Amino acid sequence: MPRPSSKAPRASFRWTAIPPTSARPSRTAREPAPARLLLGVVRRKLREVYDQDKSEIATEGLAHIAQLYRIEAETRGCSAAKRPAQRQALSAQLVEDFGRWLAYIARHWDHLLIFLTDGSVEIDSNPSENCTRPLALNLKSTLFVGHDEGGWTWSRIASLIETANMNGLDPFTFLKATLEAIACG
Length: 185
Description:
By secondary structure, the chain is mostly helical. The protein has helices at residues 39-53, 56-75, 83-90, 92-107, 109-112, 126-141, 148-166, 171-184. The longest helix is centred in the middle third of the chain and has 20 residues, at 56-75. It starts with 38 loop residues before the first helix and ends with a helix. Mean pLDDT is 75; it is low at 1-25.
């Protein structure tokens, strides 16, 4: 994944630094500074993970953040009074989607770690998906038969053939024995 450009934007406006909350005079010494997490920190952490192992999760997170940065580049230079309305219109839904994506990962974190302690659990569902893929492809092939009844017939036969394959049996022998058993009652 390409790194976001570090070049400063070419714009005819002046950058204004906002002092951290602890430096603002309106806060008294007894009030705790509010916790703030800037998106740049999240982006850097995801980038570190991506650089280490090209993680798909990090790639997806970086893609979410890249969309937000593209929108922010469009709003940069507008007055501080106009930016919240533009952000609500352009970024709010993306931020909500990103939050749901992060919440999904957090909510399922314990389930994601089960493979570490249970040897019968696969790290992903690829083996089972690989088993069911031929069934789905054969089912999709039935879309191109000439008649509905022919499609249903082909679907039944294809299901029997793939069941034999999944169980390590010779499809011809399995299909012959099955059809003979059906014919004999």
